[in-house]
Write a structure and sequence with these properties.
disordered N terminus, Helix Hairpins, 284 residues, two-stranded antiparallel sheet, single chain, mainly alpha, Four Helix Bundle (Hemerythrin (Met), subunit A), 10 helices
């Protein structure tokens, strides 16, 4: 995702399409910031609804949660269509990973609106509902580049945010899937909180043993969560460590020709373009 670096007014755009495309990726102008905040809030709402519905609530509360979900997903639909309309290459956008994530976030609710639960097998309804757990991937759009949080954090900090987001996504998705496959069979899994507890205990290798998977699907979900944890988390942590080491051994000097930021402490020329750079350096 590319963020625009210069601020513009709506009057500077040649068409409505350009205006939509700009403000949906903008992070500096007030409208762009408001759109980002609004989308983040919508993401939090749908994730919270998924969690709350796993707890024993009254029929009225469950009905209210469904209505909130429909309204929230309606905004997702508007956002999806707006991004598609404003995209410079609409065919390419359809196969973009963020576009696919947005579509996955919309389809479960849209399916249940078009085909009410009374018309579908209960198993099909449960499968459709569990796909809502993948809506948390929508947060990845906001950590795609250094302009996260309105361009106020550095790249090294952004990598830490990505690591934390990866951990949160692994915990959330694993807990949601584990709850889906175990809640009907496992007396230890009654709510999302129980599944989340199991996920943390499993991925941190504490292994109290008070909750264990009892179904074949539950065992496979456990295997997948462990594999995801031991691959993705160390990989991103390694990137952070390498970045810190690189910064600690380099000096912050901006090349006036190509813009390269970090150079060797004893460098007299930019290693990217060969331009002469000035650095104060004390010899041995």
């Amino acid at each position: 995702m590319q963020k625009q670096k210069s601020e513009k007014n709506a009057s500077e755009f040649n068409s409505l399409r350009e205006s939509i495309q700009f403000y949906l990726i903008d992070c500096k102008t007030p409208p762009g910031k408001l759109i980002d905040i609004f989308i983040i809030l919508l993401n939090l709402i749908v994730c919270a609804i998924f969690v709350l519905e796993t707890y024993p609530v009254s029929d009225n509360t469950r009905s209210l949660l469904w209505e909130i979900e429909v309204v929230t997903v309606s905004f997702f639909m508007v956002e999806y269509v707006a991004r598609l309309y404003g995209s410079r290459n609409r065919i390419s956008y359809l196969f973009d990973k963020y576009s696919i994530i947005d579509l996955v976030a919309i389809l479960p609710t849209l399916s249940l609106i078009l085909f009410p639960g009374s018309l579908l097998n209960i198993g099909v309804v449960r499968i459709i509902r569990v796909f809502r757990v993948f809506r948390i991937f929508r947060f990845l759009r906001f950590t795609a580049d250094p302009h996260f949080f309105f361009a106020t954090i550095t790249m090294s900090v952004l990598k830490v945010v990505r690591l934390l987001m990866t951990i949160l996504i692994i915990f959330f998705v694993s807990s949601g899937l584990f709850f889906h496959v175990e809640s009907q069979l496992n007396p230890g899994i009654k709510t999302f909180g129980d599944a989340f507890y199991f996920t943390i205990v499993t991925l941190t290798t504490v292994g109290f043993g008070d909750i264990t998977p009892v179904s074949e699907a539950g065992r496979w979900v456990t295997v997948l969560m462990i594999i995801s944890g031991i691959i993705l988390i160390p990989w991103q942590a390694g990137q952070i460590i390498r970045e810190w080491i690189r910064i600690s051994t380099k000096k912050h000097v901006v090349c006036s020709k190509c813009g390269l930021i970090y150079h060797d402490r004893d460098a007299s020329h930019c290693k990217a373009c060969g331009n002469v750079i000035y650095q104060e350096y004390e010899g041995d």
